[in-house]
């Protein structure tokens, strides 16, 4: 006779089989309590803290049509992991425009003109520039725990796009030259940009964002 098992919905815990004791209702209640409250580290990192974005792969490529190429990879959107075994099939982008490709865990991939996600928790995959008939250039979004290069031409305040698709949870400046670069007091960053100050001309740095 086939064994029928109940798999609980949130964490996939397997509920023990019944029929051995008179405590089935208590067992079910205990397992439902565990399923509702047990926490994995991914719950903290990618859902509670809002760390959504591409971890690896999902590399865009140019194409002779308006549909860019895209490799498989790993990303988190709305706190959920998405790692298809095969390359996802995209719809065409709009012609003669700059489009940002995002992924939503419910509705899938979509394009928009803004580098900020349309919904909270959407993952920015990258940017595609199109002619009337083809994808002519692409650029990746910044990865989770990725780096943004800084090379301001003049001293003083400057702004750089971080391409995370959302407001960073945190950011830190790592100098790659003499001199200094630091964050402006308010705001330090928002959903689109980093706001910084350079001590002089020719200074360079990398900002690690997450």
* Overall pLDDT score: 89
Overall body shape: flat
- Estimate the strand proportion: 35-45%
Strand arrangement within the widest β-sheet reads 9-8-10-11
Summed up, what is this model?
The chain is 10% helix and 37% strand. It is mostly beta strands and 210 residues long. The longest helix has 14 residues.
Description:
- This protein has 210 residues and is mainly beta.
- It is built from two helices and 17 strands.
- It has helices spanning 24-37, 41-48; strands at 6-7, 14-15, 53-57, 60-61, 69-70, 73-77, 80-82, 98-104, 108-112, 123-130, 135-140, 146-150, 156-161, 171-175, 181-183, 193-198, 205-209.
- A hairpin with a 2-residue loop joins strand 6 and strand 7.
- The mean pLDDT is 89.
């Amino acid at each position: 006779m086939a064994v029928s098992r109940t798999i609980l919905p949130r964490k996939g815990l397997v509920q023990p089989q019944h029929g051995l004791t008179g405590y089935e209702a208590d067992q079910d209640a205990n397992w439902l309590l565990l399923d509702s409250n047990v926490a994995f580290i991914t719950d903290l990192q990618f859902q509670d803290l809002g760390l959504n974005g591409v971890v690896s792969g999902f590399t865009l490529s140019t194409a002779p049509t308006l549909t860019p190429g895209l490799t498989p990879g790993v990303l988190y959107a709305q706190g959920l992991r998405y790692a298809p075994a095969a390359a996802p099939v995209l719809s065409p982008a709009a012609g003669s425009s700059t489009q940002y490709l995002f992924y939503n865990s419910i509705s899938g991939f979509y394009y928009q003109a803004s580098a900020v996600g349309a919904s909270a928790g959407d993952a920015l995959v990258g940017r595609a520039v199109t002619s009337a008939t083809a994808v002519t250039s692409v650029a990746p979004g910044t990865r989770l725990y990725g780096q943004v290069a800084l090379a301001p031409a003049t001293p003083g305040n400057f702004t750089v796009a971080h391409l995370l698709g959302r407001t960073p949870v945190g950011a830190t400046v790592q100098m790659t030259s003499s001199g200094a670069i630091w964050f402006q007091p308010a705001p330090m960053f928002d959903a689109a940009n980093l706001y910084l100050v350079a001590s002089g001309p020719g200074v360079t740095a990398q900002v690690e964002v997450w």
